[in-house]
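Q: what sequence does this backbone want?
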């Protein structure tokens, strides 16, 4: 019996040994077209054994006979194959095409990327959260072709956003659709709470939004609880901000030399510098290295029948100009209940509170202040500026300290949605949502007493202390609120017939009501000094017997009702048709013009699905051609009821004991006023190639806005006519490329460049008479045949070197040697205002960006660059003549004698010709910026299990580290927020470099 048992045991061990012995496996790996794949990772599951395919797609590996082989290749679906005693295993990998199957959020629904016929770019929330910006839109800079973003450096600043140029003289801002709610700003959003952002660029993609979508649409989807379990995620980063580039102004010694030369040119007496021995760097004194932090906590759970997500965020940012600060608190709650598979109810609530303290000094003040003046004697006594600028330029540090923390500014946001969704008759889905957006703003401010000033002695004047006893304290209050109520009701039919015909139809209606109001007031106390404490900063602290307060207020109200429908059809994944129609009614316009109908059609052809393509074209995995046409309205930036006459207060008359105010028309009203109409066509192609490692998307577009709402300056009329007149076009091309690959088992990388070109042109405006729109005091001009808001002035040709030199060129009657010489553009031999021309646009012609990422084992690295080209910046900060101000370093090369300079005019502020708007004051706005460098490390998950963690990632990051540009300001990103008067640099707030360390935890 024992012998039988022993024999049985030996047989069992022999079977186990035979089953587990190693075998050598050989084979070949190909794709669906039977092309060999090089570098495919072949490994044994749950082991460290592995190899790769060679140049012919062949591999060889020794594995346990009962093991499982895992075949992995970038862009293809991973396959697992059991060995089961086999010695030869050939594998055909299928392209994963995950990018094509990605669901993209569009208006009132979603669609697979492969089925899109419009131009839409999608950015994941994970990519957005890697940048340490308070605004999620700022994180899109350089990532989306055709998207212009001009950031501001001040704490909490909102970026200026343009999609495919500027197509209106009123407003060029896109709308934001956050979880279905239409909004104008999204400053309240926590960027760590975003699932994805879609940028809808062409009219066919935005037509479903009607009159709201004329300037483009940015759709934002916030996060929801994932499937399966409860998760906790915490992200925290802290950093410092530092100014990289300062404006190069002269020091005290150079100031004295230049001012002496200027006085000599004026035949004026020399200035007495006896008491002015300082060498003050005012820029350095008002600037600082400033901290910032971002903190985010998300808790989510999903039980199948219900899901809950709670997000908390806290962000702080101090300004690189002292005393400025901003902080924001966020909370978002999302709850969804699914009683059955066909019915769900949900609610989404976001609350935010922001608080900011503005800096109390302008950058221009620091640039203008003479460096020869000392700063202060003690904490309550400051030195005033020299007499040549004392009345116009204050001591920057005195201004900074006097007005520090003298205002309370808080904003509150409450935004909520309640929705329900019901699936009926298998293929129909009914959805209704009710949305509210409530915003409240409030500020209180205080004007304190001035410091004692020391006027240093100059010449016969003695040094003296001065305190202005005429200054009295005052307070001000401002309150504002806006309300928006929106409801959307849709029914969707989604059906696939015979596995080839996929049809999705949508019908619905929407209503939108917006209202807002504000009140403001200030009062000055002439008898008592108001204490410098926020508890007293209310208007009623001042007795009514004081002078009458300054009061203001206003309000708006707009309603909109819309009906819309859309059909998406795909045949055999090859032929695509998308069509939409929308009818809008809006209360801004006269009853006969309130309704309009808009629509779009898009066609697509997936040529890579055709048989001839598959059999003849190698290396291209997916290729789609697309074309679209769309028309929609634009009512953004329009005031309400402009079709009705308006009045303005003019003169005041006294009749006996009564005072009467007279009114007069404010403008000439057009009863036929209507919205602007945007029409556009878009052609493009997109695809994947080289085993999905290369992706590309190219678009060509032509967009025209007709019936521009314009203030017409009529001949012999003192009042403007507000009417629809003029057309603006934007034509361009966009290219987005991407390459991702894997080297070995541990190293992956991706390269994603993008490029876009846009040509803006005012096709017509005021063609029947000489008519143009001007901005920034005439510096910018908008006329037919030119780009919108271009710089308008003289072109510098050099400097008049001598009287003899002036005899050979055109001059003004009062021109002198040392003055700027200008081009005689009309060739009449003299310089007049008629010689002014288009000097260039503040809007860039070219946008480009490049994004690189690498990962090796647990390390990851990110590098981002971004730039623009083709625009100009107006250095308006250099044009001041109200007083003698400090000189920028370019004035060290000013004309003194013939041949000394052919660029910089003579130092003489009394010569007005040198201050005409000209190319002398323009700088190229081209730049390339190293936007982001980031290095991260993710800890091994096996090491974290014992700690109850699923992921820990730490990172260090640098942003805006270096900018290559010829612009001399703090940043080449001059503001283009003003459409008719953009591009001026008056000391634009610096864009700081940001150095950050951060931590991401997941439980």
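A:
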């Amino acid at each position: 019996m024992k012998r039988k048992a022993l024999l049985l045991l030996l047989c069992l061990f022999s079977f186990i040994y035979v089953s587990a012995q190693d075998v050598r496996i050989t084979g070949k790996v190909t794709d669906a077209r039977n092309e060999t794949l090089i570098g495919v990772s072949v490994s044994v599951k749950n082991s460290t054994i592995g190899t790769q395919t060679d140049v012919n797609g062949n591999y060889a590996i020794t594995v346990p006979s009962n093991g499982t082989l895992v075949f992995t290749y970038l862009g293809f679906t991973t396959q697992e194959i059991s060995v089961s005693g086999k010695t030869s295993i050939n594998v055909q990998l299928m392209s994963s095409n995950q990018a094509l199957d990605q669901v993209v959020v569009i208006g009132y629904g979603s669609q697979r990327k492969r089925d899109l016929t419009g131009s839409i770019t999608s950015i994941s929330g994970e990519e957005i959260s890697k940048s340490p910006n308070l605004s999620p839109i700022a994180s899109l800079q350089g990532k989306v072709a055709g998207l212009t973003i001009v950031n501001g450096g001040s704490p909490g600043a909102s970026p200026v956003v343009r999609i495919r140029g500027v197509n209106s003289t009123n407003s060029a801002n896109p709308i934001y659709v956050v979880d279905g709610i239409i909004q104008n700003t999204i400053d309240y959003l926590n960027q760590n709470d975003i699932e994805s952002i879609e940028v809808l660029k062409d009219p066919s993609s935005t037509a479903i939004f009607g009159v709201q979508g004329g300037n483009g649409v940015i759709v934002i989807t916030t996060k929801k609880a994932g499937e399966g379990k409860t998760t906790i995620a915490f992200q925290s980063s802290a950093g410092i901000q530092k100014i990289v580039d300062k404006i190069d102004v002269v020091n005290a010694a150079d100031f004295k030399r230049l001012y002496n030369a200027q006085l000599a040119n004026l035949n004026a007496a020399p200035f007495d510098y006896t008491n002015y021995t300082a060498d003050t760097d005012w820029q350095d004194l008002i600037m600082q290295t400033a901290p910032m932090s971002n903190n985010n906590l998300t808790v989510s759970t999903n039980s199948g029948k219900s899901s809950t997500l709670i997000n908390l965020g806290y962000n702080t940012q101090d300004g690189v100009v002292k005393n400025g600060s901003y902080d924001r608190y966020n909370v978002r709650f999302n709850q969804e209940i699914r009683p059955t598979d066909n019915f769900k109810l949900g609610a989404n609530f976001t609350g935010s509170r922001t608080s900011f303290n503005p800096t109390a000094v302008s950058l221009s003040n620091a640039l203008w202040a003479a460096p020869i003046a000392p700063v202060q004697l003690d904490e309550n006594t400051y030195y005033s500026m020299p007499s040549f600028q004392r009345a116009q330029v204050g001591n920057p540090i005195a201004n900074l300290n006097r007005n520090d923390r003298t205002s309370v500014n808080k904003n509150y946001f409450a935004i909520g949605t309640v929705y329900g969704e019901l699936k009926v008759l298998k293929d129909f889905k009914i959805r209704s949502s009710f949305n509210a957006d409530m915003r409240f703003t409030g500020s209180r401010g205080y004007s304190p007493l001035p410091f004692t000033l020391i006027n240093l002695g100059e010449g016969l004047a003695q040094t003296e202390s001065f305190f202005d006893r005429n200054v009295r304290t005052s307070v001000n209050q401002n309150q504002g609120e806006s309300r928006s109520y929106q409801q959307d009701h849709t029914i969707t039919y989604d059906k696939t017939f015979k596995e080839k015909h996929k049809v999705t139809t949508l019908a619905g209606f929407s209503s939108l009501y917006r209202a807002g109001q504000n009140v403001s007031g200030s009062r000055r106390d002439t008898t008592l000094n108001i204490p410098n404490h926020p508890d007293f900063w209310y208007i009623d602290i001042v007795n009514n017997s004081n002078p009458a307060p300054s009061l203001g207020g206003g309000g708006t109200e707009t309603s909109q009702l819309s009906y819309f429908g859309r059909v998406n059809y795909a045949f055999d994944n090859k032929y695509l048709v998308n069509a939409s129609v929308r009818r809008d009614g809006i209360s801004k316009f006269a009853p006969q013009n309130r309704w309009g109908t808009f629509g779009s059609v898009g066609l697509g052809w997936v040529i890579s699905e055709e048989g001839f393509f598959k059999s003849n074209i190698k290396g291209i995995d997916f290729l789609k051609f697309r074309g679209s046409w769309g028309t929609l309205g634009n009512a953004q930036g329009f005031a309400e009821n402009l079709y009705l006459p308006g009045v303005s207060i003019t003169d005041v008359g006294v009749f006996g004991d009564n005072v009467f105010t007279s009114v007069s028309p404010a403008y000439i009203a057009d009863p036929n006023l209507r919205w602007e109409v945007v029409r556009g066509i878009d052609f493009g192609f997109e695809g994947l190639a080289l085993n999905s490692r290369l992706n590309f998307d190219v678009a060509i577009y032509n967009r025209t806005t007709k019936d521009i709402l314009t203030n017409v300056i009529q001949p012999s009329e003192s009042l403007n006519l507000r009417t629809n007149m003029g057309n603006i076009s934007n034509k361009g091309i966009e290219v987005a490329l991407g390459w991702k690959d894997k080297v070995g088992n541990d190293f992956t990388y991706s390269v994603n460049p993008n490029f876009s070109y846009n040509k803006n042109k005012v096709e017509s405006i005021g063609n029947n008479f000489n008519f143009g729109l001007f901005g920034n005091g005439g510096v910018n001009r908008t006329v037919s045949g030119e780009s919108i808001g271009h710089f308008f002035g003289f072109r510098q040709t050099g400097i008049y070197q001598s009287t003899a030199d002036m005899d050979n060129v055109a001059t003004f009657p009062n021109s002198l040697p040392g003055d700027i010489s200008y081009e005689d553009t009309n060739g009449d031999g003299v310089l007049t205002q008629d010689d002014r021309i288009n000097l260039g646009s503040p809007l860039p012609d070219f946008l480009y960006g490049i994004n690189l990422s690498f990962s090796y084992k647990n390390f990851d690295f990110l590098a981002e660059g971004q730039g623009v080209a083709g625009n100009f910046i107006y250095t308006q900060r250099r044009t001041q003549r109200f007083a003698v101000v400090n000189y920028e370093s370019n004035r060290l090369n000013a004309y003194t004698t013939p041949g000394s300079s052919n660029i910089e005019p003579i130092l003489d502020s009394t010569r007005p010709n040198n201050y005409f708007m000209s190319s002398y004051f323009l700088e190229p706005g081209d730049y390339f910026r190293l936007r982001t460098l980031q290095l991260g490390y993710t800890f091994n998950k096996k090491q974290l299990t014992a700690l109850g963690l699923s992921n820990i990632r730490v990172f260090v990051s640098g942003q805006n580290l270096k900018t290559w540009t010829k612009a001399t300001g703090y940043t080449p990103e001059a503001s283009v927020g003003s459409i008719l008067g953009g591009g001026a640099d008056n000391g634009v707030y610096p864009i700081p470099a940001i150095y950050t360390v951060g931590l991401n935890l997941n439980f």
